[in-house]
């Protein structure tokens, strides 16, 4: 096909079915071929040939998208899992392939006492995948998105040219591919900024009954930067309402003392939980839950997720309306946490016109076809509500 060997540009049913699915299991768009290679020349060549024939080309590594973002209907999917090397790590930078997982990166950096500034909650996502959408995490209130912490990229442009780009060298390409969702060039390799890593993490789980208090304290902790990692979540309280929790984490290295900057907060202090773990364990804290979900089955079920960024002024009202009557299921999670617009510098990552935005990530699992239909319809209604408030979609 297109002049490539059959074992490089594959068209068998198993490969096409793999490329027509993703973690969401909601959208299915079959390509005509899947490129499986470890050659940057092959990637550039197939992009040129596909462009000449009017075919879409989309890169995919872990396939953790939930709405078909890494699919190419009638086009070609680039299997990036062959590009998985961590090439070089120094005290300031890591040079890694786009198909490398963030867990691979962290395993290579921690022995040198350094870490990427922003990590996603789940580490087994590919570097190229998160850089193609932005990459938000609990440290984004300090450092912005993962795309704001990349200093150089090796890219195949939509014309099929290989280009090394940075903020000062081919900045137009650099700005196009960061949060470009794989449609404005293919990331092959990234040079990621690193920062010193502490060895331990002091983790506080602060509980709230009132949404207003929960949001107030998140704004305060974000503005004062008391913690290194800041996230929040909403959870049904079992009696028809909702409870809220701030997960605030401070890093430290013994023999230094772990900080406890909790003054002036409105949480129910008697319900607070505190523990201390290693930084490595904290960064990979989802591993045990994911392993359990894989064994029990829900990891393989459909995931009709919704991720939006709400303007601060509308956050409380929109969240209250969004949570009313919301069904999340046994394995569902609702994340809510603030990010300051001033920390973000990626043109392709759209934030609301507000100094502070709140990420609302509605992460649900559907255990039946009827539940999936209902959740998808509900997501569309919530998206209309959020958009009317000035929200932007993080993962369209």
Give the tags.
about 400 residues, alpha+beta, Uridine Diphospho-n-acetylenolpyruvylglucosamine Reductase, domain 2, Uridine Diphospho-n-acetylenolpyruvylglucosamine Reductase, domain 3, Vanillyl-alcohol Oxidase, Chain A, domain 3, 3 domains, eight-stranded antiparallel beta sheet, five-stranded antiparallel beta sheet, 11 helices, 19 strands, about 25% strand, globular
What multimeric state do the chains show? single chain
- Beta-strand residue percentage: 25-35%
**Range of helix content:** 25-40%
Q: Give the domain tally.
A: 3
CATH superfamily of the largest domain: FAD-linked oxidases, C-terminal domain
Q: Please tell me the overall pLDDT.
A: 96
- Structural class of the secondary elements? alpha+beta
Q: Note the gap between the termini.
A: 31 Å
Strand order of the largest sheet: 15-12-14-13-17-18-16-19
Low confidence ranges: none
CATH C-level class of the largest domain: Alpha Beta
Q: Would you list the SSEs in sequence order as H and E?
A: EHEHEEEEHEHHEEHEEEHEEEHHEHEEHE
Task: Please provide a brief summary of the model.
With 396 residues, the protein is α+β, with helices and mostly antiparallel strands. The chain has helices at residues 13-19, 40-52, 102-109, 127-131, 140-143, 171-177, 211-224, 279-283, 287-296, 312-323, 369-388; strands at residues 9-10, 33-36, 57-60, 76-79, 86-89, 93-97, 114-115, 150-156, 162-165, 186-193, 195-196, 200-208, 229-236, 242-252, 273-278, 306-311, 333-340, 356-363, 392-393.
């Amino acid at each position: 096909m297109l002049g490539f060997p059959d074992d490089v540009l594959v068209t068998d049913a198993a490969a096409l079915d793999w490329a027509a699915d993703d973690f969401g299991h909601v959208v299915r768009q079959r390509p005509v071929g899947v490129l499986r290679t470890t050659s940057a020349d092959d990637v550039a060549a197939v992009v040129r040939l596909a462009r000449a024939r009017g075919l879409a080309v989309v890169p995919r590594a872990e396939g953790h998208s939930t709405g078909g973002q890494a699919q190419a209907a009638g086009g070609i999917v680039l299997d990036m899992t062959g590009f998985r090397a961590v090439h070089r790590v120094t005290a300031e930078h890591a040079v890694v392939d786009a198909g490398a997982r963030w867990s691979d990166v962290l395993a290579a950096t921690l022995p040198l006492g350094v870490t990427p500034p922003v990590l996603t909650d789940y580490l087994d996502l590919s570097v190229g995948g998160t850089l193609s959408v932005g990459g938000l995490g609990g440290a984004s209130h300090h450092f912005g998105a993962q795309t704001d912490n990349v200093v150089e990229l090796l890219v195949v442009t939509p014309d099929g040219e290989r280009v090394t780009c940075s903020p000062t060298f081919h900045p137009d390409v650099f700005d196009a591919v960061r949060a470009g969702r794989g449609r404005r060039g293919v990331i092959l390799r990234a040079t990621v900024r690193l920062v010193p890593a502490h060895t331990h993490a002091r983790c506080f789980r602060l509980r709230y009954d009132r949404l207003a208090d929960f949001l107030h304290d998140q704004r305060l902790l974000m503005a004062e930067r008391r913690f290194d990692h800041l996230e929040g979540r909403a959870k049904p309280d079992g009696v028809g309402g909702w409870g809220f929790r701030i997960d605030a984490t401070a890093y430290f290295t013994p023999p230094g003392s772990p900080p406890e900057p909790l003054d002036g907060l409105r949480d129910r202090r008697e319900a607070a939980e505190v523990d201390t773990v290693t930084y490595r364990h904290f960064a990979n804290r989802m591993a045990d839950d994911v392993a359990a979900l894989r064994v029990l089955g829900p990891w393989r079920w459909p995931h009709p997720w919704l991720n939006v960024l709400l303007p601060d002024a509308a956050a409380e009202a929109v969240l209250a309306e969004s949570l009313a009557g919301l069904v999340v299921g046994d394995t569902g999670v609702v994340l809510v946490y603030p990010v300051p617009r001033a920390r973000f510098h990626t043109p392709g990552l759209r934030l609301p016109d507000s100094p502070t935005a709140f990420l609302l990530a509605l992460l649900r699992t559907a255990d039946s076809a009827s539940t999936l239909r209902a959740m998808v319809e509900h997501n569309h209604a919530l998206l209309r509500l959020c958009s009317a408030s000035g929200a932007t979609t993080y993962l369209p």
